[in-house]
């Protein structure tokens, strides 16, 4: 579903993604771990074409480098993205936030989009907040709204970039539960997170990045039980004693 081959990305002289080869099959949940600055966010942004790459190729469901704007729009619609900051439109209700994309981009009728949005808000547990504005919701509820908004575009892949890092601890689990359900339903997911519980529970595969490289690519049991590289041992040592 996601295929990256020989992807390189530089910021000036900084080599942020180094010859990344990655294949994520349909329905697989991949957790990306790594120290700050290792390139995890850039990887997500490259997959969603928010960040242009310098060389290599990225395909989503067989669709590769966009030749024209239309292909780019399609590619973006196929990849739902949830960031650390929820980025909801402050002056629109939660329901309007979720219906905007389907109406404007997918050309769905307003009624159909609202019906679908209510179903999604139900699914993430905040249907009763539909007519409220983002500032009236807790961080956890806003992040669940952001997940519903991404799902409303019917993505083939969901990317999560530290979706719980900005949340108060008591709200982390409600967001992780929604993500765990999505994973169980077969969504293809790439998740950058420091939540090791989620990685152990929901991931099929763990990628460990360091200095722009994928240093380890293993099943969670293997990675947590017996990391191979010194860099991964060091990282786990630090994070597990925090
Ligand atoms: N727009 C940019 N311009 C220049 N350098 C950038 C830009 N975005 C990221 N970088 C640099 O690229 C490197 C990788 O950043 P990236 O955000 O991908 O790492 P990360 O692993 O996601 O880190 P964190 O866990 O702190 O979010 C870092 O050194 C960062 O400072």
TrEMBL record:
Any idea where the ABC transporter domain is? 2-236
Taking the record's annotation, the residue ranges forming a coiled coil are none
| Nucleotide-binding recorded as keyword | yes
Superkingdom field:
Bacteria
Q: Keyword check for Flavoprotein, yes or no.
A: no
Q: Which InterPro entries match?
A: AAA+_ATPase (IPR003593), ABC_ATPase_HisP-typ (IPR030679), ABC_transporter-like_ATP-bd (IPR003439), ABC_transporter-like_CS (IPR017871), MetN_ABC_transporter-like (IPR050086), P-loop_NTPase (IPR027417)
Give the UniProt subcellular location, in the record's own words.
Cell membrane
Which Pfam families does UniProt cross-reference here?
ABC_tran
**Keywords from the UniProt entry:** Amino-acid transport, ATP-binding, Cell membrane, Membrane, Nucleotide-binding, Transport
A GO molecular function term, named singly, is: ATP binding
Task: State the membrane topology.
Answer: Peripheral membrane protein
Which family does the record assign? Belongs to the ABC transporter superfamily.
Q: What is this protein called?
A: Amino acid ABC transporter ATP-binding protein
């Amino acid at each position: 579903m996601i295929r990256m081959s020989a992807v390189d990305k530089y910021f000036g002289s900084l080599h942020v993604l180094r010859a990344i080869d990655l294949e994520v099959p349909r329905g697989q949940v991949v957790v990306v771990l790594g120290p700050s600055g290792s390139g995890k966010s850039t990887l997500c942004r490259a997959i969603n074409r928010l960040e242009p790459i310098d060389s290599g190729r990225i395909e989503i469901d067989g669709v590769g480098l966009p030749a024209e704007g239309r292909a780019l729009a399609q590619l973006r619609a196929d990849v739902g993205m949830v960031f650390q900051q929820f980025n909801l439109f402050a002056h629109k209700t939660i329901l309007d936030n979720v219906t905007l994309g389907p109406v404007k981009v997918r050309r769905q009728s307003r009624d159909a989009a609202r019906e679908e949005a209510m179903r999604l808000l139900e699914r993430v547990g905040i249907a009763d907040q539909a007519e409220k504005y983002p500032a009236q919701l807790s961080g956890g509820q806003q992040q669940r709204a952001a997940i519903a908004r991404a799902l409303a575009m019917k993505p083939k892949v969901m990317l999560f970039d530290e979706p719980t890092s900005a949340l108060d601890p008591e709200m982390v689990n409600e967001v992780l539960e929604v993500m765990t359900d999505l994973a169980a339903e077969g969504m293809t997911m790439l998740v950058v997170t420091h939540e090791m519980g989620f990685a152990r529970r929901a991931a099929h595969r763990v990628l460990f990045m360091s200095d722009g490289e994928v240093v380890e690519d293993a099943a969670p049991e293997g990675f947590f039980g017996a990391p191979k590289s010194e860099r991964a041992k060091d990282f786990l040592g630090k994070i597990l004693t925090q």
